[in-house]
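writing this on my phone so excuse typos. first protein, seq and then structure
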Amino acid sequence: MDYQPPHGGVHIGGAVSESSQGTYITVLGTRYSVVSDRDDEYVSSLAVFLNDQLERFGASRGASLMQRVILTALNIADELFTERARRRDASKEIERRAEELIAMLDVLDAASGSSGTAMTAG
């Protein structure tokens, strides 16, 4: 059974969907055929990023290939988790501010209602 990435994405090997397209990338000197719903430029940029990260976590330290891959995977996972937390925090802040604005509008609505003027949403 072939791995199917979530939301389309990138897949090494067989077809993902009718709209998917194939391209070749090179990671650590090995060429891969990659099928993706994304365009070739995007897939190539992923390979460049991955190669840069692999180089960053190994070339100067004499790390083995497996150590480089593990360190790279951990670094990318850390970046992903950090970004998810940042987005979650930003979403909570937006929600908090929206609730404050709604409360302010409720106060204004109540104040205008007591003076005999009705506010309506339009």
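second protein below, same order as before
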Amino acid sequence: MAAKGFKNGRLAQLVERLLYTQDVGGSIPSPPTSFGSVKARGGCFTMLRKLIFIVALIVGGVAALPGASSVAWAGDPVGNYSVVGSNPGGKGRYAGTVSVERTGDTFRVTWDIGNQTFIGTGIGSEKGLAVSYRTGNQTGLAIYGAKGNDWEGVWTFTGGKEVGGEVWTRR
């Protein structure tokens, strides 16, 4: 099913074109092939801004579809996961569990890492999920992309200058 005015896949093509041509100075764009090449062109902050933009487009495109609230996705993020991750700046690794529940148009995300519980609210689709979260006085932002039935993402604390990484494996 396509949003009004867009043929199937057209929105994704427009987003892809924007990402590959946004920071290009010449007439022949060469897309980044790894996070390393993205760092060379503007750092992880630029990649994080682009991921936020993609999630916003995905959420907006899905919301515009007739009957979108009743769509069931193959990569639906709802479920229970094992999580492994690395802290921002490579300052240690961690493991724990994550549960994702649908709460209307949003998701409630709960991480249990060691003796800490992080609670978040997410928006997204079967392709991407953006989550703001809190534990005690700390808040932050995480962005994930689907990888089959699992999810991979990056995260940071509010005011952070570095990002950590996370992988959720469905249990």
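The longest strand covers residues 93-103. thats all i got for now
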